[in-house]
Amino acid sequence: MKRNFNYIIVISALLASVLLFPACRYETSNATGWNYNDPRNGGFEKLPYYEQETGPGLVLIEGGTFTMGATEEMVMEQFNNIPRRVTVSSFYMDETEVSNSYWLEYLYWLKRVYGEDYPEIYDKALPDTLVWRSKLAYNEPYVDYYLRHPAYSDYPVVGINWLQANDFCAWRSDRVNEAILIREGLFEHFPQQYNEDHFSTDAYLAGQYESGKRVDGLPDLDPDKEFRNVRMEDGILLPRYRLPTEAEWEFSAYGLVGNTFQELVTQRRVYPWDGHYVRDGNSNSRFYGEFVANFVRGRGDYMGVAGSLNDNADVTAPVFAYQPNDYGLYNMAGNVSEWVMDVYRPLSLEDTDEFRPFRGNVFKTKVLDSQGNTDEKLNIVTYDVEGLLEYLRKFSTITEGKLNADEVQLVENLISFAEQADERFNDGKADEAYTLIRDGFQQVRSSNLRISPKLLTGMGDYVEDTPGGLRMRKVRPEENIDRDNYRVADNIDYRDGDPLSSVDYLSGDDNENLMYNSGSTTLISNRTRVYKGGSWKDRAYYLSPGTRRYMDERKATATIGFRCAMDRVGSPVGLNQK
């Protein structure tokens, strides 16, 4: 739903009525009897709110209860998707997968804003186009052309890892809210954004972004002030774009909103359409008998027979290909598998809550200064210091005996920088740690060695936060002493992997967790993420939304893409619908 009013006009009219007709009737608080929107009472504002605006590319997914999990025989015999009844709140979902054109728009913005001083930010966002290569197949055309050639602009972006997908969602949130403020007449178009001087929703709400303003702000009914910034209480800014949870993705894929009658699910769907078939079963459709998704029909058959291609796609297909499901979502089966937010555990469906189930919570809060105010926004890049040190050590091990003396010295210097940074970070001197990592990047760029491009790409993967955003940190146990709902920040391991759920829980050693020690005892770790749905390279089994697979959050393939979601606030169905 698009807004049919200009926010500034509404607020200005409200203020004018207050100033010109001071005796007019105000809405009165039933709690205190004081008037709302009355400067004589201090100017507390209660603004008209219609309902949440639908963000670009999104459709409303009306929530409800459903049976989450397997709908087909578990042919892989993993038993990791045991059926269980859960409830999902209403939310918004992209109607298509994120396409190459969206990603190129993202890359262009990053290069324009960060490219000169922080090229590692741009480098981190580059898709891994080498995922197309195979030792026994000729796929070089996709390596060279799939991302950037206009013939593929409306095809789903691939070669994106889970971390890159999350970064895109954060960037998209800020660009959409900036566009809203421009539309409402509060901001000018400001293409000169550079480094930390770019629009960030959180920084703006904290009063730390002023560039590009067209006016001083909204009229303020506080008698001691003239103007103010938009607040979250105004309902004009949208919630963040994000990845959907596993439960949300699975629920929206089935599209049961079109398969119910008076709270009765008339037929539990195996796929995002009715029936147990993967062909169009509607005899009145011009596509009757044709395949309804992009997948592998059988051994060696990826696209059908010349003259009558069954899915008209050799690898991926355009994001608007095939018929949407009953929510209006395209390609929820086939084309590409999709990342979701959840950390993978084999028995998540036995552990997570029945309402809005999700595993992966790491609770954070804004960093405050000594006065208790929001700390200054970032003017530097922050890094995963521990992860970067681990990467450099692995790089040194893998390349042992393969580097010349200058290259060996460079790697040793980088490890030394990273070790010092790790010490500073653990001592609470985060900015000093990030500066040391930054010095390491500068040394690589000035080295002009054969391994320099590879090091820059690998190190760039450990960029965390970028200039312009607010500083965040994990909540501390001492802040939650009186809480019953949670105590620690990181709850990924809760009930499955933490010391209490480990086979060694009686040892009293809380420092080690061997249950999910990726690489030695299992492929599962706290960095292992779920991806859902079938792809152009999968058999029909994976077209069922109940199937689930997993992969390390830093890895990417030619078969996994993603789409964004957004929280729905207020009425689950929309006030204009019911």
Overall description:
- Among the domains are: 100-241, no CATH class; 385-460; 491-525, no CATH class.
- 25% of the residues lie in helices and 10% in strands.
- The protein is built from 12 helices and 18 strands.
- A hairpin with a 2-residue loop joins strand 8 and strand 9 (264-265).
- It is globular and about 75 Å long.
- The chain starts with 6 loop residues before the first helix and ends in an 11-residue tail after the last strand.
- The relative contact order is 0.16.
Q: What gap, in angstroms, lies between the N and C termini? A: 15 Å
Class from helix and strand fractions = alpha+beta
Mean pLDDT equals 89
Uncertain spans, ≥5 residues at pLDDT below 50? 1-5
Helix content: 10-25%
In percent terms, what proportion of residues is strand?
5-15%
Outline: globular
Computed Rg: 26 Å
Number of strands: 18
Helix/strand layout:
Blueprint: H1 7-20, E1 58-61, E2 64-68, E3 84-88, E4 91-94, H2 100-114, H3 119-125, H4 140-145, H5 162-183, H6 201-205, E5 218-219, E6 227-228, E7 241-242, H7 246-254, E8 260-261, E9 264-265, E10 304-305, E11 308-309, E12 337-343, H8 348-351, E13 364-366, H9 385-398, H10 405-426, H11 430-445, H12 452-460, E14 472-474, E15 528-532, E16 548-552, E17 560-561, E18 565-567
Parallel strand pairs: 12-17
Antiparallel strand pairs: 1-4, 2-3, 4-18, 5-6, 7-18, 8-9, 10-11, 12-15, 13-14, 15-16
Helix pairs in contact: 2-3, 3-12, 9-10, 10-11
